[in-house]
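Batch manifest line 338
LIGAND: iron/sulfur cluster
JOB: complex structure
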Amino acid sequence: MKDRYGREIDYLRISVTDRCNLRCRYCMPRDIASIPMKDILTFEEIVMTARSAAELGISRIKITGGEPLVRRDVCHLISMLKKIPGIEQVTLTTNGILLKEYLDEILAAGTDSINVSLDTLDPVRYQKITGFDKLESVLSGLKLAVNRNIQVKINAVSADWNSSFGSPVSDDSSHIHEDIKALIGLAEIMPVDVRFIELMPIGYGKSFPGIPHDLLIREIKDIYGGMRRISRHGNGPAVYYTIPGYRGNIGFISAIHGRFCSGCNRIRLTSKGYLKSCLCYDTGVDIKGILRGDASGVLKHEELCRALEQCILSKPDSHSFTQTEKITENLSMSAIGG
Ligand code: SAM
Ligand code: SF4
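JOB STATUS: finished
ARTIFACT:
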């Protein structure tokens, strides 16, 4: 289905939990009150919503969180979503901590690809950013997944972690270049795309200065002279570059400065059952009331379709991340799903 600006909306991000096993400084830096389980959508409710969404033209679904792998039986949900007519792809984004443990189930469920969020390959900085000494678990899950031939992408937030909060993540400022070079190095040794994402001023992300991507790309080009932009690769907003001899590409998701809103193809469903039309604003439609309301069968499906249409038609033409006073979203990214 097209929105008011002619954009084809075919992608739904579904957050299955607000809980997480990490405490990333820019996302959920400390324990925050969790949504009671009774208020979180059940798998049946999620599947019902996805069926209606598929009828409106949603063909790709991303499972996110919080950390999706901490929700029990999430792979069962993936396999249910994969069976919905019209749903062509179900993918997963994870911090990777439990990837090794659940990889067999993830593959058996038919997951089409996995995004692993990883901001540094330095164990000390990893612990400072995420609160846990778990880098090895992530790397072993990542390697195993690559060896099992599922498509894997790395997502790294581009931020200067030293510029905020009391304890810096590194004693010297060269850590930015070290982290970026080490992450890019993964694309040399493995067939993985490494994508940098501009930090967005959502939730705790407001406390960190992001690194603007025009600057980042210039600096990376200085280091990797042969890096060349390639034509569109993938379905999302990433712009990709190739480095000669590398097995994976380098992507940039320039959420703030890239002004990619004209190509925005997505809506989001939070774990509480709120359909969001844009990351930047709190506008959307509460569908839990419909899911748990009196209507049944075809009537419920029709109500869901109307709510989804309303959400799609309420999509704004663009975000206003550079005018922070206009941002109305107050949830943390862990509650939205990124
Ligand atoms: N826990 C899973 C993970 O880390 O992949 C899924 C949820 S997490 C909220 C999804 C993505 O959002 C992660 O890649 C994370 O780095 C990113 N993220 C969180 N806060 C962000 C922010 N303020 N700006 C940009 N990306 C952010
Ligand atoms: Fe958890 Fe992902 Fe947020 Fe980190 S970015 S705290 S892993 S939800």
